[in-house]
Amino acid sequence: MARIVIPDDSPPQIKGTEALEELEKWGEVELHNERSSSHEEFVGRIKGAQVVINIRAYSKFSREVLGQSSPSLKLLSVLGTGVDNIDLSAAREYGVLVTNTPGFAAPAVAEHTLALMLAVARQITELDKEVKDGEWPRGLVQQLFGKTLGIVGLGAIGGRLARIGKGIGMRVIAWTFHPSRERAEKSGVEFVSFDDLFREADVVSVNSRLSDKTTDLVGKRQFDLMKPGAILVNTARGAIVNKKALIDALTSGKIAGAGLDAFHQEPIPPDDPLLKLKNVVLTPHSAGMTPETIERGAQMAVGNVINFLKGSPTNIVR
């Protein structure tokens, strides 16, 4: 039986799922629910494994790690869509197949994106604090009905968000590396240029994958194009948005606010200036953390392992 290692289930996500019970029928499963204390400990956990299931993006499968895991490691099954923590070129060289779980968290992340949009537009967190402090604040907040939602990256999450946006009466525009008439019709969006999206949108939602092409994709130029009352929401990866440009735009009043579920450093450090801004709503990269999503992701990641062991791999990352 195959040796299957899950080195990074911390905080626990796959533990206790039906998918894990099914996986144990297919190999000797070694599950770690504590984060590795060192690089050496992490490598030691996966050394000799034929299959590794990667739960957390903080686990970095660099060329060095993959080299030290060779030649035994044959499959790296990622529970998630993003694979920016993996050196894919090295994986190919060492003969390690990489799979992921596309679309598994789309409903939950799209809902969370809507929640952040509304929380910022309606100033929910700040008003909640003031009311609990005994105040009764008065002032105007934003409504989203009749406004324009701009989606950066029209994958599974972006597509679902587009339908939600239209459902609450927003005009939806989008930008992607690969626009097409078919994709526009399927999602009910209008594709626009990158610059036009930032010029026209009242809410910009970042839903792209992190890659060399998307690192710092949103920077000073884009914030300068945005409307003064506009909102930025990022439920993808922190590094897609240039941090200095974001903080400058928020502190100067260039944009009205931001809703963030992804950060350059996670957990966010206590001295991060974002923590002091009243026009920012923050959540701890928890957009996809629902019972339904956890079970679905686990089932897909384990299914990829089983299909690989059967000789018919699925959801291969190219």
Lay out the secondary structure:
Blueprint: E1 2-6, H1 18-23, E2 27-31, H2 39-46, E3 51-54, H3 63-69, E4 75-78, H4 88-93, E5 97-99, H5 106-121, H6 124-132, E6 148-152, H7 156-167, E7 171-175, H8 181-187, E8 190-191, H9 194-200, E9 203-206, H10 220-225, E10 231-234, H11 243-252, E11 257-260, E12 280-282, H12 291-310
Structural class designation: alpha/beta
**Spatial strand order of the main sheet:** 8-7-6-9-10-11-12
Euclidean distance between termini CA atoms? 27 Å
**CATH topology grouping of the largest domain:** Rossmann fold
Got a strand count?
12
Radius of gyration over all CA atoms, rounded:
21 Å
Helix content: 25-40%
CATH superfamily of the largest domain: NAD(P)-binding Rossmann-like Domain
| Anisotropy-based shape | globular
- Could you tell me the mean pLDDT? 97
Question: How does CATH name the architecture of the largest domain?
Answer: 3-Layer(aba) Sandwich
Which regions contain 5 or more consecutive residues with pLDDT less than 50?
A: none
Give the total of domains. 2
CATH class of the largest domain: Alpha Beta
The quaternary structure here is single chain
User: What summary fits the major beta sheet?
Assistant: 7 strands, parallel
Strand percentage: 15-25%
Question: Helical element count?
Answer: 12
Order of helices and strands: EHEHEHEHEHHEHEHEHEHEHEEH
